[in-house]
Amino acid sequence: MANSAGSRKRARQAVKRNQHNSQIRAKARTFVKKVAYAVAAGEKKEATSGFAAMQKNLDQAVSKGLIHKNQAARKKSRLSAQIKAL
To answer: Are 62 and 27 contacting, i.e. CB atoms less than 8 angstroms apart?
Structure first.
């Protein structure tokens, strides 16, 4: 357990930050799933509209360091190719 006042504060901050980052990461995953399900169902219009929102969320997660930029690029690239193939 943290002993000094500074380390106690750092522990509180870590809990807060973890919760916030988890929400952003989960939101990004949700948007990716929405687009993937729309592609699987063959709904091109829904997939295209969801793709723009998904891109924004992935880029935000990258800028905060929650996911690697190459991972986001890979997800965007693969889903974009699947949408174009519809």
So the answer is: no
